[in-house]
Amino acid sequence: MKPIPIFMHHTLEDIPKYTMPSGFHFRFYEREDDLGNWARIVTATKEFANETEAIGRFKKEFLPFKDQLFKRVIFIETKDGETIGTATAWFGMWQKEELGRLHWVEILPDYQGQGLGKPLISKTMELLAQHHNKAYLKTQDTSEAAIHIYQKFGWKIV
């Protein structure tokens, strides 16, 4: 069966704080190879069939707003410099209003289950709150674990 889209919203108040486990840190989109890093991560998590398709989506969705990339797209990096996760504090139209958008929250499969997801969501929501007072996200009914985590952060299903 085809997944059913689920939209959730948040007022960006009372954002739970989670610290990053030792050996990992956040950084912004900043390097020449970050488009490739993003494509590699979202392809490894099966959001795209291949990196070429992912790059095409990134160019269409994000590059028209290139100045925003450097303050809205974040990565998780290991102490050895490997880029292993990403999320975006983006924006979009929802119910005829421009809101923040929690977007493309992804961690490489080999690093899932290591306590990185909650700090990534927390950090991205903090970034959203710097630019917006409300936000939305889109997920799907097959992402039960993600929905559960989002609800713990105060996201409400619409």
Automatic annotation (TrEMBL):
<feature type="domain" description="N-acetyltransferase">
    <location>
        <begin position="24"/>
        <end position="158"/>
    </location>
</feature>
<keyword id="KW-0808">Transferase</keyword>
<dbReference type="InterPro" id="IPR050680">
    <property type="entry name" value="YpeA/RimI_acetyltransf"/>
</dbReference>
<dbReference type="InterPro" id="IPR000182">
    <property type="entry name" value="GNAT_dom"/>
</dbReference>
<dbReference type="GO" id="GO:0016747">
    <property type="term" value="F:acyltransferase activity, transferring groups other than amino-acyl groups"/>
</dbReference>
<protein>
    <recommendedName>
        <fullName>N-acetyltransferase domain-containing protein</fullName>
    </recommendedName>
</protein>
<dbReference type="InterPro" id="IPR016181">
    <property type="entry name" value="Acyl_CoA_acyltransferase"/>
</dbReference>
<dbReference type="Pfam" id="PF00583">
    <property type="entry name" value="Acetyltransf_1"/>
</dbReference>
<keyword id="KW-0012">Acyltransferase</keyword>
